[in-house]
Amino acid sequence: QLNMAKKKEAFLKEFKEGPLQFKPTYKFDLYSEVYDTSEKKRKPAWTDRILWKVKNHCEVASKEGEFPEEEHLISVTQNSYSSHMSYGISDHKPVTGTFRLEMKPLYSDPLVVLHAEGEWNADHDVFIRYSAAPEFPSSAWDWIGLFQVNFRHVNDYITYAWVEDDEISSDRDSKQVYMSAPNVPEMGGEFLLCYYSNNLQSIVGISEPFQV
């Protein structure tokens, strides 16, 4: 029924689905892996499905000749697609999928370039120098965070400095910010700096790894 609908309905045609390599997920007797034994004896069906579609901005632009069609900013690959028969609180079995998302940067050059200056340790205040691209929309709420090299989320920072409140010098090409010594980790290790943009709600610059 779904495949028939995908052929007829325009909005469904571009949706993708992984191979159905699991048993039908409907209809089961509650708390069991037995298909419907009621008087209706409904036929098993693959009722629960996961479809996906990626809307690339460059796909729209390519129609106007701005970008080649093969260039995509985002690509999605499904790594797994399976049902979970151990759950029995419904006459359906849940279905899950895992995906790998790959994104190409919209900018060929980073909006902010930053690096740690001098020797970093907890005995003294430390310094950061950064420069921003002319078109970068900076904000008073931007901040620079100190992260371990294996961080996974923007909230994993060890400490941070506000780019305006903690600024100590600036010139036409760059600005300097400090972090106070008590906030520098004493255990040492390999770290990096990330510039977080409040306007863009994302990290827009990452330093090379360095030792503390």
UniProtKB/TrEMBL annotation:
<feature type="domain" description="Inositol polyphosphate-related phosphatase">
    <location>
        <begin position="1"/>
        <end position="97"/>
    </location>
</feature>
<dbReference type="InterPro" id="IPR000300">
    <property type="entry name" value="IPPc"/>
</dbReference>
<dbReference type="GO" id="GO:0034485">
    <property type="term" value="F:phosphatidylinositol-3,4,5-trisphosphate 5-phosphatase activity"/>
</dbReference>
<feature type="domain" description="SKICH">
    <location>
        <begin position="112"/>
        <end position="212"/>
    </location>
</feature>
<dbReference type="InterPro" id="IPR036691">
    <property type="entry name" value="Endo/exonu/phosph_ase_sf"/>
</dbReference>
<dbReference type="GO" id="GO:0016312">
    <property type="term" value="F:inositol bisphosphate phosphatase activity"/>
</dbReference>
<dbReference type="GO" id="GO:0001726">
    <property type="term" value="C:ruffle"/>
</dbReference>
<dbReference type="GO" id="GO:0045719">
    <property type="term" value="P:negative regulation of glycogen biosynthetic process"/>
</dbReference>
<dbReference type="GO" id="GO:0005886">
    <property type="term" value="C:plasma membrane"/>
</dbReference>
<dbReference type="InterPro" id="IPR046985">
    <property type="entry name" value="IP5"/>
</dbReference>
<dbReference type="GO" id="GO:0051898">
    <property type="term" value="P:negative regulation of phosphatidylinositol 3-kinase/protein kinase B signal transduction"/>
</dbReference>
<dbReference type="Pfam" id="PF22669">
    <property type="entry name" value="Exo_endo_phos2"/>
</dbReference>
<comment type="similarity">
    <text>Belongs to the inositol 1,4,5-trisphosphate 5-phosphatase type II family.</text>
</comment>
<dbReference type="GO" id="GO:0005783">
    <property type="term" value="C:endoplasmic reticulum"/>
</dbReference>
<dbReference type="InterPro" id="IPR041611">
    <property type="entry name" value="SKICH"/>
</dbReference>
<dbReference type="Pfam" id="PF17751">
    <property type="entry name" value="SKICH"/>
</dbReference>
<dbReference type="GO" id="GO:0004439">
    <property type="term" value="F:phosphatidylinositol-4,5-bisphosphate 5-phosphatase activity"/>
</dbReference>
<dbReference type="GO" id="GO:0046856">
    <property type="term" value="P:phosphatidylinositol dephosphorylation"/>
</dbReference>
<protein>
    <submittedName>
        <fullName>INP5K phosphatase</fullName>
    </submittedName>
</protein>
<dbReference type="GO" id="GO:0046627">
    <property type="term" value="P:negative regulation of insulin receptor signaling pathway"/>
</dbReference>
